[in-house]
Design goal:
The protein is elongated and about 70 Å long. By secondary structure, the chain is α/β, with parallel strands linked by helices. It has two domains: about 5-160, P-loop containing nucleotide triphosphate hydrolases (Rossmann fold), CATH 3.40.50; about 175-335, no CATH class. A five-stranded parallel beta sheet has the order 2-3-4-1-5, with helices on both faces. The protein has helices spanning about 10-20, 40-50, 65-70, 90-100, 120-130, 150-155, 170-180, 185-195, 200-220, 225-240, 240-260, 275-280, 285-305, 310-335; strands at about 30, 75-80, 110-115, 140-145, 160. The chain is built from 14 helices and five strands. The longest helix has 28 residues, at about 310-335.
Length: about 350
């Protein structure tokens, strides 16, 4: 994989090529941007360019060094990924040991941390020592979605290279190349990807479209009698990896509701093909309440990642969404009782909404 195979990251690649040609590649780079937009692939392409016999602008892809890097067997291109939820101190100590040695065959050893923000505090402190005294023959590449979870002492020692979300056109083209999706599936996958070429999209988009409608129906039941049905569905989703999609999709749904409440329609909505259902939900969730629900979805994911019970976490999410919608309904009821010139000065009547079995 060389630079020419990477789409949608022209500015980042141009920055790297300029540094390489000038011989001014720093000891540490931080690739900032969303997951699945080409950060890791670009790090490998950079390793090729720095070690190719025809470099430094771009790896040729055919010399022994380029082929080994492409096949993932080069002894001097080291990739470190989280062990479970975190990159741990033992992994960083192994990096320190290896970079203290002379490279086996590379002109420039490259160490890639695929999720640098996953370093736990002990690992980050240990890695800082390597950053403070980097070997001349080693390049450290840290891939991260942002800097907020990294110590400033680490961020300040890296040159930042920013990666952008992929355009819908590029995502659609890449998905069409990699899989045989129907037009409806391709549209959904492109919108749900939100600028990231997620590897699971091609294989799961069909089942996910079915699951999406199940979520709309289940979480749309906000009456008290629905608790048994919701519990059953939450248990089912929690027993598999479906919970990840449930939360990921609910993010897009409440995001759309916020936009809809501010006048956005059509192609600007991720779930534009379910616009009728969106309008139905919009009567229950004004932009403020939709934003509140969106943040609650994010909090639920974080709780599960910290080992909360998945079923209980999903049930609690539904209960809170039900409360938020009830707040929205009560607010609308108060607004309807305002005299002209109040919250609804037009005096227009609004249709009642049934919440909790009561109008």
């Amino acid at each position: 994989m060389s630079y020419r195979d990477i789409q949608g990251q022209t500015l980042a690649i141009s920055q790297l090529q300029t540094m390489s040609e000038a011989g001014r590649v720093p000891s540490a780079l931080m690739f900032l941007g969303p997951q699945n937009v080409g950060r890791r692939t670009t790090a490998h392409a950079l390793a090729q360019a720095l070690n190719c016999i025809q470099g430094p602008r771009e790896g040729c892809g055919i010399c022994p060094s380029c082929r080994k890097i492409q096949e993932g067997v080069h002894p001097d291109v080291i990739e470190v990924s989280p062990d479970g939820q975190f990159i741990k101190i033992d992994q960083i100590r192994e990096i320190s040991r290896r970079v203290s040695l002379v490279p086996y065959e590379a002109k420039k050893r490259v160490v890639i941390l695929t999720a640098a923000e996953a370093m736990n505090p002990q690992a980050a402190n240990a890695f800082l020592k390597t950053l403070e005294e980097p070997p001349q023959d080693t390049l450290l590449v840290l891939c991260a979605e942002g800097t907020s979870r990294l110590p400033e002492t680490i961020v300040s020692r890296c040159m930042l290279v920013r990666f952008s979300p992929l355009s819908p056109k590029i995502v659609e083209e890449l998905l069409a190349e990699k899989s045989k999706l129907s037009h409806e599936e391709l549209v959904f996958a492109t919108q749900f990807a939100q600028g990231r070429l997620r590897p699971e999209l091609s294989d799961h988009v069909g089942p996910w479209m079915v699951l999406r409608d199940d979520i709309i129906q289940t979480f749309g039941r906000l009456d008290e009698q629905a608790f048994g049905e919701v519990t059953e569905k939450c248990t089912k989703w929690a027993s598999s990896e479906d919970w990840r999609f449930v939360l990921g999709w609910l993010e897009t749904w409440f995001h759309d509701l916020v936009l809809l409440g501010h006048g956005q329609t059509g192609r600007g909505l991720i779930n534009a093909d379910r616009e009728e259902a969106l309008y139905q939900w919009a009567r229950r969730f004004n932009p403020r309440v939709a934003g509140k629900s969106y943040r609650r979805v994010l909090a639920t994911r974080q709780a599960i990642l910290l080992n909360a019970n998945k079923t209980l976490a999903l049930e609690s999410l539904w209960l809170d969404i039900r409360v938020f919608a009830r707040e929205n309904h009560l607010g609308r009821s108060v607004a309807k009782r305002e005299p002209q010139g109040g919250l609804h000065g037009s005096g227009q009547k609004e249709s009642s909404i049934t919440m909790g079995g009561r109008p």
